[in-house]
Amino acid sequence: MNNKRTKPLIRLPLPFIIAVCALPVLLTGLFYALCGIPGIMGWASEYFSAPVRGFLGVLSSLYPFSMMEVLCVVAIVWLIYYIAKTVTVTVRRHGKLKILGKRILPVVVAAFYLYALFCWLWNSGYHAPGFSERNGFIGGGVSVEDLTVVTKMFADKVNELAPAMDRDASGHYIGDRSAIFSASTTIYQNIAVRFPCLDGKLYEPKPMLFSWLMSRTGYTGIYFALTGESNINTQMPLFLMPATVAHELAHQRGVFAEDEANFVGIAACADSGDPVYEYAGYLSGLMYLISALRPVDPAASDDIAGSLCAEVNRDWQDNYDFWQSQKTVNTGIKFLDRILTSMTETANNTVNSVYDGFLKSQNQVLGIQSYGACVDLLVEYYAPSTQ
User: Cα separation of 232 and 241, whole Å?
Assistant: First the structure.
């Protein structure tokens, strides 16, 4: 006689299972059917995305660590375990295809639910009227004269601010990351007077434990809509970190497009009244402006670059050196260095290609080049002729 107890089987009705599986597919399909209608996307962004992301931001602000990182690590570990378990169970039992299907289906359905939620929480903002449109920016390009004037203005500001920054005996910038993070929640107060849509609660960004991985792939920050968090690469040069923080907080305030978030972040830093943020904003903007000016007026670009003080040149060089260092691996073992450097380059190119494709698929026609497109907005906002 077998006294072993068996667990009672819970059989869900087939229509219920079909409905649960079909719902995320329908929600995703509905998003793509409606994403071409800016009015609907704007409504979804304002009345669904913003409140939900705000609520998630409140929850994630209760923890000092990045909830995004925790969830990603847990998901990866669980997925590895689940794949191994699926292979073991499928090999040992009869009806392999049926078992495999039952094991794969929940993962696919869960992935569709996450993607559907991401579409309505974040992707909807790419298809809604953007910050520029809602705030009366004209667009359509800028003159070389205006570009030169604004670039010169930014150069003058960094020359003014750079000597006052904390530096070591060699002139390298030494800042306080915790002070940058703690000051972040107030830096939008001034710019919100000019742009009321930027007013609202901000949550302190999170330092990334896997900052080394972000550095290797060339990224400085990421806003994660599913947790409402702004996450920052803590390895990046400190003198530009406030600009990155401001950029990610722009996403937190509902500025979706990368060029607009870049502009808002730079302008928020410049108007913040905090010298550390001001310097980061003007220096970040200057880097974009000079890059845009150089092809159309090399002489003016060289003149402005030549006017930069020693402290600015030091920071500019330190920034270049840091990102160059992330392209290679130096363990001292040549063959291993070649392999790891090649893997780093492949990972960098892959991540950039994927992100570029994602942005282009969401109505951002410039892809990852969108970041530099903030130049037009900076010139329109700061040029005397456009005031």
Answer: 8
> In the chain, what are the domain boundaries?
14-127, 139-386
Q: Report angle CA 45, 46, 51 to the nearest 5 degrees.
A: 95
Range of lowest pLDDT (197-211, 238-252, 283-297, 340-354)? 340-354
Lookup result for tokens 């330092």: 207
Buried b vs exposed e over 60-96: b needs ≥16 C-beta within 10 Å? bbeeeebbbbeeeeeeeeeeeeeeeebeeebeeeeee
CA atoms within 13 A on the CB side of 348: 17
| Sheet of strand 206-207: strand arrangement | 206-207, 229-232, 221-224
Res. 10: pLDDT tops 80: no
The model's pTM is: 0.89
Beta strand segments in the chain, E: 206-207, 221-224, 229-232
Q: How far is CA 6 from CA 92, 226, 386, in A?
A: 20, 39, 77
- Residue 12 and residue 42: Cα distance in Å, rounded? 38
Confidence category of residue 92, pLDDT binned at 50, 70, 90:
confident
